[in-house]
């Protein structure tokens, strides 16, 4: 075989391959004879296989784009090929992507970004002066005055200053230091980086990371990748998904048996659950973290998505600060935000930041070093983040339009959240907690025993079974609760409220109920 | 201490903090008394320290933005504060960022991106029709027709098709399958992802990754992060940095003693060395990888940067294909490209792709799963990549301007590369190999023994010592060869050719020579 191969490549072949790419020389013919290779490809064992691959990567799961979404893609292809179904399109209610659902970008943000992208437009009368001013400021802070240069690894300086100023305003004057601000490639990148730098130890000293159940499955995926230990604490479904410090304590105590718990992750407002934590709850959590020496991660990407008039977003940073210096000088806290949610919905730009306070002085250098290997986050995403934290203000030319667009988007989100909650609660077998914030409903579905058995016979989690049926019968793609975690014996799914087109949704929800009844009757497809 | 803290946070404080943020209640006063806390902060031990952090992250080094660049930043701040120096600005010749050096973006690319960013511009007469057509095509392939939606994790479909078409054209008809194309957040992201999925095993079975010395230090950094084993193979400086398969064989044999070598990384054109591999060399390498069962990574981000008329870029994919089916059906190959280099220099957009062929069928799903956790690469960067692979063609309205701009940029790069090479070779104590491609010079500097001793007394690598002096005396920031790897006892630095402003550079290079002579004379400062 080697000789044949050698003949082929040692220059016995003409340089111009034949129509199917293989050389046609006599050497190739001879090689084929030696190799006993038919014109079809021979296949030898691969270097990279399920057995040889990184086992930590193999263990990773990410349900938001997992098996049900792959199924949705297959169904879309079938629809394209003209195969008839009970529906004409797949509704992708699996992912928090507002613009994919038709939400319009904020005009001012896109104007500034267009000006930054193609600075010739700074001479165009079609753009307002306040947008031009923002664009010039950003460009002047970029290498070569261009979005095309790498920025500093921590991000463009003036954007970090703007982020710090935003945080200070948001938090009623609690100071934020630009030096503690790091621009990131979406919040996911920041969360992953912080977890990466934290995880160490082996055996029973391996770092434990406390995460809420249900959680946004980035956390469990990164914990798998890093071979850290996942420590679950359960949110209280009976109590609108509240976080109870006793439950934190329970989870921590049990975890100490088999790992070194060092990190506590909070998602507020919650994903998938949508609960907005009370100030008291946040204080309790901070005290717990201080007492038990836990590094706090506060995922606050939905800070602009609070619907319930009884709820208010309090940042962990602000509450920490107001608890006095014993806490505010000592609790290591990383808080995350993103351009993907809120009212701007700029998921595709992969913009985000983290504010990381009370780091050991030697650690900061390590963090920047780690970030520097990837050079910098996309500068266009940094520019988007700048507009998010530094939008038009009253008196500015673009303010009125900005205000209208923002209110329209947030009003639409709030309305759809409420309608979704109400509609789900009309369907027998489905119960939806009040939606306080974020973008999803995470209703509980009561799956009868026979349906559970049917699912198990199909080797599926019962809620995955339900969701697959829902997808096949109605075209609605939601993510089963098993992808986020849930108490044993309970079943849920996560549904993006924005995907509700109301006439259609009633049809869909009617079918949801019908699916339930059929499952209850024990029918299988 | 706990009681005081408890008093402070259990609601004894008024909600409105005082001017310096701390509550002013009597409880706080009592707490302070109990804690014996003065108004200054108390400091307790941190959770995240050099001892407790991820040791793999601690081991990471990335010289391109390492200590010398931090020093350059300090000097810039000193200049800003008015401190007098022998120069008025720092020249950042440490990083391959063309636009930071004043290179202009390609107009057509920025026009298409502006149209995608702010589609109102599709109605503007100021944009050519061919740019609008490209923009519409990209937007139609995006969710919600917006760059602000997440794309599929593998990237926008039509952009992957365009990349595959580009590869096929570039490779003279050798077919590329869009299904093997993955858009990435710069090439760094793709390289890191592939290495991550490959690394496994423990002890003497830990995955070994063969990398060239000198290398672009992303490779060593990622190998550190993943706790894989770095296996060095030395490029031949006497022979214009050629890759010699005997050296590959030597490195592999030695490595088998202590690890499981599974991966062979090639950078072509080379970074920092700039050599362009001959076709024969590529065939030799492919045969070696086939014979020794190594997964091939071909980093080809400089494929558009070839200067020497005696050299030609051959893609690994094309050569592999032309070696016949025993190779082309079996060798697992990942090839990488980026928007950061070439003639477009769009570093800040973090655009890139990888073409991965001959993966085990079960592995592809694992790869897409891993990518899905980060959702998708920035869609703006994907759009930039689309224009790179699908630029204006003859007959199109924008072609002439595009052609002129491209030729101007590449001509300028080629000229500066030659001038840099010639100038360095005029300086005693510096020898620069011919620059065949990429964007850097990597000259060897002959540091006399006394200077080496002086460096060691400062606990610095001798070339770091030299580069620090160069920075302090001339403001030129280059990266010492020790950051890239080099044969024991040799010293180099990497210099971005683009940063040569000619009048200035002669001054700089004159000083380079002066520095050398002073070092030779054994002077220390």
Biggest interface, and residues per chain?
A-B, 134 and 134 residues
Strand content of chain A: 5-15%
Total count of strands of chain A: 14
Number of helices of chain A: 19
Low-confidence stretches of chain A: 1-41
Radius of gyration of chain A: 27 Å
Helix coverage percent of chain A: 40-55%
> What structural category characterises the helix and strand content of chain A?
alpha/beta
Say what oligomer this is.
homodimer
Largest sheet of chain A: 7 strands, mixed
Give the overall shape of chain A, derived from the CA principal axes. globular
The order of strands across the largest sheet of chain A is 2-8-7-6-5-3-4
The residue-averaged pLDDT of chain A reads 89
GO molecular function (chains A, B): L-alanine:2-oxoglutarate aminotransferase activity; pyridoxal phosphate binding
Function (chains A, B): Catalyzes the reversible transamination between alanine and 2-oxoglutarate to form pyruvate and glutamate.
Enzyme class (chains A, B): transferase
Pathway (chains A, B): Amino-acid degradation; L-alanine degradation via transaminase pathway; pyruvate from L-alanine: step 1/1
């Amino acid at each position: 075989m080697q000789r044949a191969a050698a003949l082929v490549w040692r220059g016995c072949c003409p340089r111009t391959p034949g129509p199917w790419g293989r050389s046609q020389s006599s050497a190739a013919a001879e090689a084929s004879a030696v190799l006993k290779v038919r014109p079809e490809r021979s296949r030898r064992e691969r270097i990279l296989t399920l057995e040889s691959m990184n086992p930590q990567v193999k263990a990773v799961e990410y349900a938001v784009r997992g098996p049900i979404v792959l199924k949705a893609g297959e169904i879309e292809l079938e629809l394209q090929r003209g195969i008839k179904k009970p529906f004409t399109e797949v509704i992708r209610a699996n992912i928090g992507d507002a613009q994919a659902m038709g939400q319009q970008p904020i005009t001012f943000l896109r104007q500034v970004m267009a000006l930054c992208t193609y600075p010739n437009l700074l001479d165009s009368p079609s753009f307002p002066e306040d947008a031009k001013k923002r664009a010039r400021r950003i460009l002047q802070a970029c290498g070569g005055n261009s979005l095309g240069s790498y920025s500093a690894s921590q991000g463009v300086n003036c954007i970090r200053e703007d982020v710090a100023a935003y945080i200070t305003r948001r938090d009623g004057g609690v100071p934020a230091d630009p030096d503690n601000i790091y621009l990131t490639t979406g919040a996911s990148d920041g969360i992953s980086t912080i977890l990466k730098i934290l995880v160490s130890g082996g055996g029973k000293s391996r770092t434990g990371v406390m995460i809420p159940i249900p959680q946004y499955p980035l956390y469990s995926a990164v914990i798998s990748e890093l071979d850290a230990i996942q420590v679950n604490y359960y949110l209280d479904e009976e109590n609108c998904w509240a976080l109870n410090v006793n439950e934190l304590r329970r989870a921590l105590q049990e975890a100490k048996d088999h790992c070194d718990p060092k990190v506590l992750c909070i998602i507020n407002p919650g994903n998938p659950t949508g609960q907005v934590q009370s100030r008291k709850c946040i204080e309790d959590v901070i005290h717990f973290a201080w007492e038990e020496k836990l590094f706090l991660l506060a995922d606050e990407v939905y800070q602009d998505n609070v619907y319930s008039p009884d709820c208010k977003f309090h940042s962990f940073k602000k509450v920490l600060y107001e608890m006095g210096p014993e806490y505010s000088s000592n609790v290591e806290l990383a808080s995350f935000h993103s351009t993907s949610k809120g009212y701007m919905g700029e998921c595709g730009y992969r913009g985000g930041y983290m504010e990381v306070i009370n780091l050991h002085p030697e650690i900061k250098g390590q963090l920047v070093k780690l970030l520097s290997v990837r050079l910098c986050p996309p500068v266009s995403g940094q520019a988007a983040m700048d507009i998010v934290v530094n939008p038009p203000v009253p008196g500015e030319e673009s303010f009125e339009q900005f205000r209208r667009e923002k209110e329209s988007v947030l009003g639409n989100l709030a309305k759809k959240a409420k309608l979704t909650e109400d509609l789900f609660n009309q369907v027998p077998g489905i119960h939806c907690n009040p939606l306080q914030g974020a973008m999803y409903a995470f209703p509980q579905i009561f799956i009868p025993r026979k349906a559970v058995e049917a699912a198990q016979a199909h080797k599926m989690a019962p809620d995955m079974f339900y969701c697959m049926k829902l997808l096949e019968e109605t075209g609605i793609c939601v993510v089963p609760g098993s992808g986020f975690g849930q108490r044993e014996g309970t079943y849920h799914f996560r549904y993006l409220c924005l995907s509700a087109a109301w006439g259609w949704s009633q049809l869909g929800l009617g079918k949801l109920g019908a699916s339930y009844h059929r499952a209850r009757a024990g029918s299988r497809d």
